[in-house]
Amino acid sequence: MVKQLRQSFKSGKTKSYQWRVSQLKGIAKMVEERESDIVQALYQDLSKPPLEAFVAEISMAKSSCREAIEGLQDWMKPEKAKTGISTYPSTAEIVSDPLGVVLVISTWNFPFSGNAVVLKPSEIAPATSSLLSKLVKDYLDDSAVKVVEGAIPETSALLDQQWDKILYTGSARVGRIVMAAAAKHLTPVVLELGGKCPAVVDSNVNLEVAVRRIIAGKWQCNNGQACIGVDYIITTKDFAPKLIEGLRKGIEEFFGKDPMESKDISRIVSPAQFKRLVGLLDEDNVSDKLVLGGRRDSTRLKIDPTIVLDPPQESQIMQEEIFGPLLPIVTVGNLKESFQVINSKPKPLAAYLFTEDEQLKQDFVENVPSGGMSINDTILHVTVHTMPFGGVGESGMGSYHGKFSFDAFSHKKSVLYRSFSGDASLRYPPYTPKKQMVMKGLMNGGLPGMLLALLGWSSHNSGTKS
Amino acid sequence: MATTIEEKEVTVFGEEEAKQLVNELRVAYDSGRTRSYSWRVAQLKNILRMCDDSEKEVVEALHKDLAKPELESTLYERDNTGGRQLANIGVLYLMKWGDAVVGSALQLGMIKNACKVALKELKNWIRPEKAKTSLTTFPSSAEIVSEPFGVILIISAWNYPFLLSIDPVIGAIAAGNAVLLKPSELAPASSSLLAKLFAQYLDTCSIKVVEGAVSETSALLEQKWDKIMYTGNGRVGRIVMAAAAKHLTPVIMELGGKCPVVVDSDINLQVAVRRLIAGKWGCNNGQACISPDYILTTKDYAPKLVDALKTELEKFYGKNQLESKDLSRIVNSNHFARLSKLLEDEKVSGKIVYGGERDKDKLRIAPTILLDVLRDSLIMNEEIFGPLLPILTLNNIDESFNVINSGTKPLAAYIFTNNKKLKEKFVMSVSAGGIVINDTTIHMAVHTVPFGGVGESGMGSYHGKFSFDAFSHKKAVVYRSFTGDAALRYPPYTGFKLRMMKALMGGSFLAILRALFGGSKS
């Protein structure tokens, strides 16, 4: 399959502007026409509420396509670069070359920078995976864009091949495996991983709005199963009770008195994940810190929006990425201590801060390393496609979204154009004492001499001296 | 002279020492000292001073390691006259023409230029870059903040030991990182001088040098770094990347490849040939990653090309080229043996049309040209990295694309032609790190374009602002206020909300207005 894709790529068809636009339009059409199928598959896999599906996936896909179609001609144009007097006369530009054949594991975002693509959706969302496979065949050019379904053996077989780039979205553990496999072929990678995304909450905030945005960033994001979802909260001991009460009210407002019955919240994706989450909750010294929720239903794979207050730092729930509807709240004496809490863990994909304190905002941005940040909101920074979306450290490397996707899958090739005029013999051996003199004269400030030399008119055929 | 491993008092450098080093650097970084603008400026200025003060020592080290042509050093006798600026430009000009002056002057000149560019631009580079936000996140403001990665490991190469060590270090410092440099043990005098100079001129808490060979490098690679930059070959590149994978450490790799030169007819042959020679034998006698590796030309044109090469080579290096003081020697006996083998390959017997002389004791090989080499000969199957130049002849110049694209992607590709269509086709269809039309190697000196490879020739890039970017994480930050909160966003999700959301996303202005300023709930 890789061979065949490579041939498709070599044929040059994926490089043409027309082909790229046709594929992008194909994706947009696919998402538009088959919206209800997609929503249904997402519901099947995750009980994802239609509105969430629409906003988070369909609409994002559509707007990404639209953005790409609009931007493509500009993005494809070589970027002129200044050359200095020192390489005069010359012109230079940076050309965006497609890399070749790329492998994308687990996301929607199709590369549209002229590459041939293999997409390997996650097997954990089987209905979506199989729908994607069917739709891509129907709507896109299947000689250059393919979907491979499967689990570990299929993914391993794919990773043994030589790709020109791999984009992997998922866990740090598998990220290491992907990068190690890529190393064998010197294949560059983009890894979008996870981490524990903290939300620091100050007391001087508009509590109602802050709470809504936190809920939106936690339980409205696949019920906490999102890489950029709020993982845990840090606030002051004094403010915690108010915050908890605010969250309780907000949760009830949004999801009703019995959230498990609410249609507006996703379920846990699989029994294995369900088991893991219950384990986090039932650990000694954590189970007694419950302040909200905690109910679970193993047949329907549902867990209430749950809050635990000050679980021990060594507990699993504070050590691993939660990826579920459990929200620990960690209290500190002074909000500045939150930086240390966050920085003692691996760098997260996103970090959030709710405050009106300008200095605190500045300190947070400067001293908390993370993939990206939103101040006074959650998730939002990833919707701004004029900015790169990606992690740092354990949360990943490389980025995409908007033009950054185009760039992620392109090689920025420098091209320098020279003419045959303006050749200075000074450049060439033999390095005679005479040349040495000329060069010294040049260097000692003879501007006219330098200009002449630059234009290739001083030569070793005379003792031209400045 | 054969390679010698630096002999010092034997301090066994293993895992423990490596771990300790990383810890020290991490403590230094965590203290925040490397992040300040004044620290970065101070280090860059110190590097400038270091270059100015150490010319003589650098020349000696290079001479010991590689017997580089001496003359360049005298060219670089700069005094403190007001001609300093011009002198800089002058030297720079010389160097940027990729001239054969491969010694200290080239490297020091480029290093100083990199420092100056960084010093001049640093404030701009550090400033967050505003990003446009759209109606959908209104009201908000956004910016991309450049954040240092933390602790960087730079593993350098032997052929331009100063340039390839200090240039990346400049980038790492400019971006606010702490850094460890591991120079190549194959250039031991340079390695040891670098260690000495860094300790003398730079902040030793945050900028360190470790000397060593394979076992030291392995110990270093076991540690967790925030980014690794490696310059060298693909075989070791794979090892570095595999080690980096264990810690999810991003890497930049500057590797090599066979840089092809396509030579068309109907060109200014003399100028082309001179530029070819400068890029090949003038660059460490072919031992440079962007040196022309092999030539592609038509059967018809080849004789003319060979004649011109012979003429100009003799002009440049005289009649006894094996002894020429203007040519570097081969770095060590391993490489000498490797290159000899390429010449002794059966498949190229009878193809040597110029040169071929070797001196095993002095590790010297004369500029050598081979004509009509077959594609399956040894010399066409590995990066030559030496003074041998194979010429492949084709019936038609267009066949060169197939030849080039049948190999792995090189770090650079060159073409000499006046044919506009051919230039365009070359740029469009040849994938290489960088391309130069009608010259060789000089793109390395243009700091407004990224310098790096693709495929087997590497990943990532640097030079100029690209160095700063290479060692920074670009963090997206969005700022919102508490006003302008749309109820549409929140459950319970009614049919009405869904319709409104669609209208919003579909861009209906009226719908957007209603939704955005929606203080009223659904």
Description:
Chain B: The active site is at residues 254, 289. The complex is a heterodimer of chains A (466) and B (522). With 466 residues, chain A is of the alpha/beta class. Chain A is 40% helix and 17% strand. Chain A has helices at 2-10, 17-33, 35-46, 50-76, 126-139, 152-160, 172-184, 207-218, 240-255, 271-282, 316-319, 337-343, 358-367, 403-408, 433-443, 447-454; strands at 79-81, 90-98, 101-105, 116-120, 145-147, 165-169, 189-192, 198-201, 232-236, 290-292, 296-297, 302-303, 306-309, 326-332, 350-354, 372-375, 396-397, 410-418. In chain A, helix 2 packs antiparallel against helix 4, helix 3 (35-46) packs across helix 4 (50-76) and helix 3 (35-46) packs antiparallel against helix 5 (126-139). Chain A is built from 16 helices and 18 strands. In chain A, the strands form four sheets. A seven-stranded mixed beta sheet of chain A has the order 10-13-14-9-8-15-16, sandwiched between helices. Chain B is built from 18 helices and 18 strands. Chain B has helices spanning 15-30, 37-53, 55-66, 71-75, 84-96, 104-126, 163-174, 188-201, 214-222, 234-246, 269-280, 302-317, 333-344, 400-405, 420-429, 465-470, 495-506, 509-516, and strands at 129-131, 140-148, 151-155, 178-182, 207-209, 227-231, 251-254, 260-263, 294-298, 352-354, 358-359, 364-365, 368-371, 388-394, 412-416, 434-437, 458-459, 472-480. In chain B, the strands form four sheets. Chain B has a seven-stranded mixed beta sheet with strand order 10-13-14-9-8-15-16, with helices on both faces. A six-stranded mixed beta sheet of chain B has the order 5-4-3-6-7-17, with helices on both faces. A three-stranded antiparallel beta sheet of chain B has the order 1-2-18. In chain B, helix 3 packs antiparallel against helix 8 (188-201) and helix 11 crosses helix 12 (302-317). In chain B, 55% of the residues are buried. In chain B, 41% of the residues lie in helices and 16% in strands. At the A-B interface, helix 4, strand 2, helix 7, helix 8 and strand 16 of A face helix 4, helix 5, strand 2, helix 10 and helix 11 of B.
